Each structure stands twice: as C-alpha cells, then as structure tokens.
Description:
The complex is a heterodimer. By secondary structure, chain A is an alpha+beta fold. Helices cover 55% and strands 17% of the residues of chain A. Chain A has 2 domains: 3-53 and 283-427, no CATH class; 60-242, no CATH class. Chain A is built from 14 helices and 12 strands. Chain A has a 6-stranded mixed beta barrel with strand order 3-4-9-6-8-7, surrounded by 4 helices. A two-stranded antiparallel ribbon of chain A has the order 2-10. Chain A starts with a helix and ends with a helix. By secondary structure, chain B is α/β, with parallel strands linked by helices. Chain B has one domain (36-65, 75-229): 3-Layer(aba) Sandwich (Rossmann fold), CATH 3.40.50.300. Chain B contains 7 helices and 10 strands. The longest helix of chain B has 18 residues, at 182-199. In chain B, 43% of the residues are buried. Chains A and B meet through helix 1, helix 11, helix 12 and helix 14 of A and helix 2 and helix 3 of B.
Amino acid sequence: MRFRYILKLSAESFMQKKLRSxxxxxxxxxxxxxxxxxxxxxxxxxxxxxxxLGGLGADIVTVSPGxxxxxGMFGGGGSGGGPEGGGGGTASSITEDHNLTTRDLAAIKxxxxxxxxxGMISDRLAISYLAHSATLSVEGxxxxxxxxxxxxxxxxxxxxxxxxxxVAVIGSRVADGVFKQAVLLNSQITIEGKPFKVVxxxxxxxxxxxxDNAIIVPIDAARxxxxxxxxxxxxxxxxxxxDANSVNxxxxxxxxxLMLVRxxxxxxxxxxxxxxxxxxxxxxxxMGTLSLFMAGIAAISLLVGAIGIxxxxxxxxxxxxxxxxxxxxxxxxxxxxMQLFMVxxxxxxxxxxxxxxxxxxxxxxxxxxxxxxxxxxxxxRGGSMSLTAITPELVAFAIGFSTMLGIVSGLLPARxxxxxxxxxxxxxx
Amino acid sequence: MPEANEKxxxxxxxxxxxxxxxxxxxxxxxxxxxxxxxxxFVVVMGPSGSGxxxxxxxxxxxxxxxxxxxxxxxxxxxxLSESQLARIRGSRIGFIFQFFNLYPTLSVIENVELPMRIxxxxxxxxxxxxxxxxxxxxxxxxxxxxxxQLSGGEMQRVAIARALSTEPSMILADEPTGNIDSKTSQEIxxxxxxxxxxxxETIIIVTHDQSVAKYAQxxxxxxxxxxxxxx
Lengths: 429, 231
C-alpha cells in the first residue's frame, strides 16, 4: 500500500468520528497552548529585563556598601541599581551604611583598567516646587565623571559642569509627572529648604536603572542637603572601565583591591561590586529556572493530552477490528496496518500542535496586553515592547513535539491493531 | 513440491487444526487431504460445527494448521513470513464473506479499488479496471454510494467485483448467500456459475445451504472435522 493511500485512509477515519477526534485534539491544544504561552511570556520578560538593564551601561561597575551573603550577586545587584535608579526603595534600605570612603575611591582609581570613578551620595529628600512637595531621591555626583558615565541623554538644557553650585538635572518623570505643574528648564526647585536651579532635563529612559525619578546635583551641593552621609563617605561608587569586554575581570580586581584596603576577607566582606552584566546574568538565570518550572507544570497537561490520544486510539482499534480484518485478508501487512493508526494519531498530534500554537499566541497576546496595562509601558525610550515573545523556534518545537507525542501515543494501540489475527478480526461483530 | 503441479490452485496435506479453549483442546479438523485444480467449482458442505469455518480459514491462508502442509499454487505457506503471506493471500485469493465485509468508509468504487491499491497496482489502470468490474456486476450506477446505502445483494455483488480485481487464482466464498433472500441468492449463484463457465474462474464455496450445492462440479462433505465425501 502506498503511503499516500495510508494517509487517505487515516484522514478519512479521523474525519469519520469528528466529535471524538476534536475532543482528543482539545486535550493537546490545551497542553501546547499552556506551554507556548508560558515559554513566550518568559522569553518576552527576559528580553525586556535584558534591554532595561542595558540602560545601566555595559562598561559601568557599581560599588555599594553591604554584602548579601545569602543571594550573593543578586542582592548586590539590587542595591547597585539604587544610586542611579534612585526612585526605587532600594536606596533608602542602605542609607545607614554609607561606609565607602575617599580612601576606597582612591584605591579603585589605582586599579588597572579603570577609566573613571564617580563617588556618589544619595538620599530621599523633601522636594518642593511651586508650593507642592514630594519626597524624591537626590543624588550627588562628580559632575565630570557623571557626564562621562551616564547613559541618559538630555531632553533639554545641559549636563552638570565643574564649578556648578546649587543646580540640578532632573529626570523626565520628575519634570512631568510628580508635581502638579511641569517643572520647566531654568525654574527653581527647593531641596530641604535650599533653592536649586534646574539646568537640565533628561529624556525618558524607561528602564529599571534609569534616571526618570532622579534629581542629580553636584556632590558638593548635595552634601549641604544630605545629612545622613558623613563628609568623607559615599553612598556608592560608580566605576567606568576602559574595556566593556573586561568588565568581569575589572570587577574582580576592584573587589580584591577593596578587600585589601578595607582589611576584610571573603567572610567579613562589607561591600558589593556589581556590573550590569552580572545583574543581567543572575536575573536571567532566575527567570530561566522559573519559566522551566512553569513549563514543566504546563507539560503535565500535555502528558494528559497524550494519554487521551492513546485512549482514543485504543477505542478506535477496537471499533475498527473488522476493518483491520478486511484489510489484512485483502493483503495489507502488519506494518501497513500499524502505519495506518500511527498516522492517524500523528494527525491528532499535528492538528493539536497547530491549534495549540495559535491559541497560545492569542493567550500570550492577552497576557501581554494585561501585563502592559498593569506595569505600564516598559518599552525602552518610550517605544513599545511586548511582554511575550513567540519565536519561530518555539512554534517549530511546539508543533514538532506534539506530532511526536501523537506518534508515541499511537504506538501501543497501533501495535495492537497490527497484531490482530485476520480470522479473529473478521469474526468480530 | 511433488504433487502440487502448476494446475493445482490449493492443496491441503494431512492438515489438522486444534484450538486451545482454555484448558481443553478442541480438534476442529482431523487429517484433511484435499486438492482443488484450476477451473474447478467446488462446494464444501457440512452442518454447523463440522469445521467448515476452520477449513475456509485454512484454504484462505487466514490461519495456519496445527499439523500438515498447505500449498497455495506452488507456495508452501508455512515457509512464508507473515507479510509475504499477507501479500500472496491478498493477490491470489478473492474473498467473499457472508457479511460482505466491505470497507465502510469507502465508496463502492473505492472498495473495488482497495485490493489493487493494497497491492500497488499502476494508478492509471485502477479506475478503469474498477469501472469494468462494476459494470460486469451491474452496479455501474452506484459507484459513489457508500456500502451502507446498498441492499444485501448489491453489497455482495460489490464484494464479488472486489474479489475479482486482483485477478486471483481462486474465488473463496464463505456462506455467500447466508445473509440475503433466496431470490437474490439465486442471482448471486447464477453469477458464480457464469464466472465459472465463461471466465473459467476457480471457485470454492463453503456453505451449509443445500440449494448452493446444485451449482457445484464437486461437493466436499465435511463432518466432525473430517472429509466424508468428495475430497
């Protein structure tokens, strides 16, 4: 029997019992859709996180006080994002511990591969503008070094320059979203009662490590309003390395040098050196594990679907015992009978996979929409980026896998069909 | 193969068949010797329980004997693999069953085509051959009907057309009139007779229907698993 004819017979048998075929397919559709939407959600989220963290700059290393022994880099990463991100709660959680000093700053400067160093102080302070006040993060930075390192571009005005007094560069949300009236360039805001002139407004960065909620002032001016940090201490130190490719090496060198200067060892370490790369890596690995776990749960529903196929095929073999007998009497071989049933269950798997991908596409689209409306537009620089991502690989994998699943599920029933004796099969009523 | 000359279609030599029913062995056929030559019209008769069905399955190579040898044309069927046997059985024997056994999801013409498709006949010849056979059995107008839309007599005629499609060396019919009324039975038997006389087909009919016997050249009587007459 030619394979084309086997296909025809299988497809006809499939079409004959429509309701049952579609119910069996439904089991696969649900499983595939669940796996596809979960995997696409995690791929999309990872892409967003990666692009957001990219805003920190690939050549920037952040030194921050404190060391989280439980989760290592990730804890350090969280506070590392603080100084620039500012708006988050991360900065305030370490305010008591601004124990990085000018001596540390000097030590870092001497590490080979370091291009520039910016000692920063930050705190959440009372800001007012035209009689409205808010508590915002204020960062004191070295004007020259900051200008070199920042990845934020200006919407209007200028960066800080050496010799600036009480002036501030503000993030886009501070300018536009915090106070009742938009803060204009060259207007005056009050920080802890002291007047500061707005000389620059940054463009929206949209990212976690971004500057949208920040108020950036020269460090000397900052020291007059931030009282929680001692005069020779810093909240964090940002380091620009000469070569972005050797960030990991320089990170280690800075760490070793600081341990030497601060007389601490691995067990008593009281600071964290982190780079955007290392934060990305640890978040990616956590997201990866999480999505694998969720996909595993979704895969259970696929397994149930596969058992459904096997069940339906066993029933089909029983019902078609007589047909099998006819085919065998007329000269069909065992292998051909086996193919007939395998092809039918492969069709179930294939259609289930195709529809499952389609449904998964819709579901992840809906999740994406809901996600965006909850979290807000996460796209970099105001552009839109989907929370979910369906890659061609994912589609191919889902369809291939479910077809394989159909074939495997059909294996036992098909074997049973092929082993039926023609005499017994013909007697069967 | 000493006694199986080229004119012999099927030969059974000292064939016995024992069925295992739980712990009891049931001897269905005992030491059967029979031979059917090309162009013969043979009817195997016997009451129910005489071993007719078992003999029919063995002649049709649907089952293998417990003892003895069966030769289909020149092939010793015990020496063939399962798939070789399936192929030879399907192409050399044209089966006709009591319950017609048409393939329910295929149309009339597709049923006639089925054996040719199973045996990979040239696609271009299949349709023409099927139309010719359906015309011969008088069903040329029912090509696209499903078996369920036909009467018993019509279904049996489709089965005959299907049995002839691979030009087998014998037609093996199991109670072909068992499930149709007596008038239609006569038509069907006339048809067998015509096939035999005009086309020189070899025909073996297994039945308990006395009225079928008169069409036969030779009658083999089976009783209690043994041939009593005509072997």
